[in-house]
Amino acid sequence: MRTLIVGIGALGGTIATRAVSAGMPVWLATRTGDSARALRASGLRVSGVGGTAAAGSVQAAVVADYRDQHFDLILLATKAHEALEIAPFLSTLLTPGATLLCIQNGGVSQILSDRLGTLVLGGVSNLGATMIEPGVYEQRNAGHLLIGEIAGGLSERTTRVAETLRRAIETRVTPNLRGAVWAKLLLNCSVTTIGAVAARTMRQYMTSSTGREVFRKIYDETLSVALASGTRPERMIVEPIPPRDDYDGWILQIIDSYGDVKPSMLQDFERGRRTEIDFINGYVAQLGRRLGVPVPMNAAMTELVHRIEQGEVKPDPARLDDLLAGPLPIST
User: Fold this and answer.
1) Which residues contact 34 (CB under 8 A, 6 or more apart)?
2) Pick the residue with more confidence: 258 or 163?
3) Which pTM does this prediction carry?
4) Residue 9: which of 101, 171, 182, 136 has the closest Cα?
5) On the CB side of 237, how many CA atoms lie within 13 Å of its CA?
6) Partner of 43 at 20 to 30 A CA spacing, among 21, 170, 249, 294?
7) Domains along the sequence of the chain with CATH
8) Strand, helix or coil at 315?
């Protein structure tokens, strides 16, 4: 398949590097011309789990420069708000019967499916990846990409796309995409967001009683919303519903898989970029209110992240104490 990867950040860049190095016909779409020129000059490199891979020569350009080309598969790996903005244009670049694969957090794939129809395929990634600098990436865990039809069930298309992407990264198919989306959302709301506001990895913040309490409250809230929506989260690397008889062992499984990954949201803070909080804890808080499920911690976390984005406070372990203190002015 002629494949266009849009968004060459930590996840998109890791997949792109392994795809190009495997000899796949891949083009890269960046946000700016400077970024495209830099990638063409430097190539791509990835290290860490899964081994080292490099691509000395890559085809990269800004998205608009592809207006006269067509692709069999477009992998949309941008931030959630960018995906909603650019997807209509990307749909014009698809060959008849081609696929737009969205791998954003939260309900992005459902929103785009409602707008663009059946050309949209949903995906969920549990790959831990970090962008060291543009074109240089580190894979932090042995995760995979899970793809599925928005409406659920299996299809020939998902199998075909999965077989294509397996040349670059482990790819699996699920008949329960909605359950997979919620499984990822559970981890995003807890592991990723807590680590971002605390400026710590999960392994670090879970050494404190405060970190453990914030994790449990946010995870439990998010799981309650998922179940109230009629969805049973699907197992990814760990079972999404904690076992009653071995909660500590379950926590250790999550730490073993994600505990040393630098939160992508923390990287957003450091670069002064807009986060995906409204599609993560904010999405859970909004849906929870609609379903009548109490969501005070997800709501407080959403507000806190917005304050960090606006420069009012900084990421710090003290932010977790602030969250437990309730709706009080947050210390600087």
Assistant:
1) none
2) 163
3) 0.80
4) 136
5) 23
6) 170
7) 3-175 (3.40.50.720), 179-325 (1.10.1040.10)
8) coil
